[in-house]
Design brief:
CATH topology of the largest domain in chain A: MetI-like fold
Radius of gyration of chain B: 24 Å
InterPro entries (chain B): CysW_permease, MetI-like, MetI-like_sf, Sulph_transpt2
Subcellular location (chain B): Cell inner membrane
CATH topology of chain B: MetI-like fold
Order of helices and strands of chain B: HHHHHHHHHHHHH
CATH superfamily of the largest domain in chain A: MetI-like
Number of helices of chain B: 13
Order of helices and strands of chain A: HHHHHHHHHHHHHH
Membrane topology (chain B): Multi-pass membrane protein
Protein name (chain B): Sulfate transport system permease protein CysW
Largest sheet of chain B: none
Largest interface: A-B, 101 and 107 residues
CATH architecture of chain B: Orthogonal Bundle
Number of domains of chain A: 2
Helix content of chain B: over 70%
Function (chain B): Part of the ABC transporter complex CysAWTP (TC 3.A.1.6.1) involved in sulfate/thiosulfate import. Probably responsible for the translocation of the substrate across the membrane.
Shape of chain A: globular
Distance between the termini of chain A: 42 Å
CATH architecture of the largest domain in chain A: Orthogonal Bundle
Strand content of chain A: under 5%
CATH superfamily of chain B: MetI-like
Helix content of chain A: over 70%
Number of strands of chain B: 0
Shape of chain B: globular
Oligomer: heterodimer
Strand content of chain B: under 5%
């Protein structure tokens, strides 16, 4: 009977003998709606209540614009640093054998596991003017903690595993024969890396960049301790949301959140596009 | 012989370094270039990953073990530890049940809108933790219909434990599901169909066929979920209200102590969280090493 129905054009699901579809899908959708979708739609709802004029006033407020610029600017720099060093770390972990490699490999995930507040106070103490690294940089006139540079440092810490973990599996699967072919055709090792290997891993690097960037933009815990949080100078957008909430200025907080959400979802969309493109172009998911 | 970290299988011969020193394989770099690249990579990791971790332990013991233990014995600290454990004990099982249900529906069946549902499940990962907290402030805070109604009936969500649990559930929502979905998709439905055709009930099929297949992947997801649940700061910070001894989780307590310039105590509590992170990493690496192919065929993260 079911097969008969299925044969007739559109159907919601393919027939299957496995039970529990209604139960598990129903539970999944209900839980998702209650925990994620309804609360999240509240941001959109409240933003619309604001009205366009008020929303625009908050969005173009000098302090908001500066905070967003600092968040996105620092995240961009940190993600670019992570692309360079993350790809290098992935390369070294996959291609070279050295003592302690497996421990180093495991340590890459530390930023995923270490609570952000702990990372934050630790980085702040290291890069403070009297800290381990800070006192080395102070005579050179470089201040890291309590400046925008400190924000970048914290965001590099947070974003590193994203690049390493997207590039690494790809390098592991990469076919050595292509490199051999390049070598037999007379390419130097440097040419092979630049023209054969790097273009091959480009989609994964791009995905890693986007993931690290997206994570950095929303990051809060590890940044606020090292940033100094001076309005207009080193105040990130998530912190401004918290400040507005503490002032019970829900409208202000919501408007900034809405802007950040729109940009994050655009990022998510971009990541999906990169992956779709990479699947078509290279036959794998970056 | 070198062994692949992810699968635990021996690597193909091509990955082994060349034995002869006089002849360098055309598909690798010279020893000098290798040494330089390894040094840069390890130096970078030492500076950005290892140094912060070591600093936590050194700062905590700066004034000796006595101060360290005294800081941990504070009633407020003990209350924070208790709250963190309570919140994780509620949030993790909730997301565990959800993760299994979602993976069952998504991996074992073909239906319309599956890709969209999977994207929605991953949504919390692309939302700032602060916004994850904010959404509950908007939902239950003063001025919202629901918040006012709940307050009239004496139910406190915001600036109380339920709010902290909700924010934690939001932030850790995808962890178990996203580990299980690719794993169960890879495993297909053959085993379950065989069990069903032999007369097993749906529950028996899940309990005796599916669960043993996914147990390591499940544990892996729970491990990551728990680490995040106990360490979450931004989302919890927004909904907690920071009432000492009542609504302060460990990460929030670290912040309060740090802002009071009580650095030894702040780092002492941090050592507990850092140890949790280390245990998580060791356990996670062990699972990847020992049961790599039973965790997920696809990327680790």
């Amino acid at each position: 009977m079911t097969t008969l129905v299925a044969a007739q054009g559109w159907h919601f699901r393919k027939p299957s003998v496995i039970p529990g579809f209604g139960l598990t899908l129903g539970f999944t959708v209900a839980y998702l709606t209650l925990i994620i979708l309804i609360p999240l739609s509240g941001v959109a709802w409240r933003s619309m209540e604001l009205g366009w004029a008020e929303f625009w006033a908050i969005a173009t407020d000098e302090r908001t614009v500066r905070a967003l610029r600092i968040s996105f600017g620092a995240s961009l720099i940190a993600a670019m640093v992570n692309v360079v060093f993350g790809t290098l770390v992935a390369w070294v972990l996959v291609r070279y054998r050295f003592p302690g490699r497996r421990i180093v490999d495991a340590a890459v995930d530390l930023p995923f596991a270490l609570p952000t507040a702990v990372a934050g106070i630790s980085l702040a103490s290291i890069y403070a003017p009297n800290g381990w690294v800070g006192q080395l940089l102070a005579p050179l006139g470089i201040k890291v903690a309590f400046t925008p540079l400190g924000i970048v440092i914290a965001l590099i810490f947070i974003g590193l595993p994203f690049v390493v973990r997207t590039v690494q599996p790809l390098l592991e699967d990469m076919d050595r024969e292509v490199e051999e072919a390049a070598a037999t055709l007379g390419a130097s090792r440097f040419q092979t890396i630049c023209r054969v290997i790097l273009p091959g891993i480009a989609p994964a690097v791009l995905t890693g960049f986007a993931l690290a960037f997206a994570r950095a933009v929303g990051e809060y815990g590890s940044v606020i301790f090292i940033a100094g949080n001076i309005p207009y100078v080193s105040e990130i957008a998530p912190l401004l949301i918290v400040i507005r909430l503490e002032e019970f200025n829900y409208a202000g907080a919501t408007a900034i959140a809405a802007i950040m959400l729109v940009i994050s979802f655009a990022m998510l969309f971009a990541i999906n596009l990169i992956q779709a493109w990479s699947r078509r172009r290279f036959g794998y998911v970056g | 012989m070198s062994v692949d970290t992810l699968t635990g299988m021996p690597r193909p011969a091509a990955a082994r370094p060349a034995a002869a020193h006089s002849f360098r394989r055309p598909t690798t770099e010279g020893p000098l270039a290798k040494a330089i690249l390894i040094t840069i990579a390890l130096g970078f990791l030492a500076l950005f990953l290892v140094l912060p971790l070591i600093a936590v332990f050194i700062e905590a013991f700066r004034k000796g073990a006595g101060e360290f233990l005294a800081a941990l014995g504070e009633p407020d600290t003990l209350a924070a530890i208790r709250l963190t454990l309570t919140v994780a004990a509620i949030a993790v099982p909730l997301n565990l049940v959800f993760g299994v249900a979602a993976a069952w529906a998504i991996a074992k069946f073909e239906f319309k809108g599956k890709a969209f549902l999977t994207t929605l499940i991953d949504l919390p990962f692309s939302v700032s933790p602060v916004i994850s907290g904010l959404v509950y402030v908007l939902l239950f805070g003063t001025g919202s219909v629901l918040g006012t109604w709940l307050k009239a009936h004496g139910i406190e969500i915001l600036f109380a434990v339920p709010g902290i649990v909700l924010a934690t559930v939001f932030v850790t929502f995808p962890f178990v599901a996203r580990e299980l979905i690719p794993l169960m998709q890879d495993q297909g439905t053959g085993d379950e169909e065989a069990a069903l055709s032999l007369g097993a009930s749906g529950w028996q099929t899940f309990r005796y066929v599916t669960l043993p297949n996914i147990k390591w992947g499940l544990l892996y997801g729970v491990l990551l979920c728990n680490a995040r649940a106990m360490g979450e700061f931004g989302a919890v910070s927004v909904v907690s209200g920071h009432i000492r001894g009542l609504t302060n989780t460990m990460p929030l307590h670290v912040e309060i102590l740090y802002n009071e310039y009580n650095f030894v105590a702040a780092f002492a509590v941090s050592t507990l969280l850092a140890s949790l992170a280390l245990v998580t990493l060791v356990f996670k690496s062990f699972l990847e090493y020992r049961y790599g192919d039973e965790i997920a065929a696809t990327a680790k993260h």
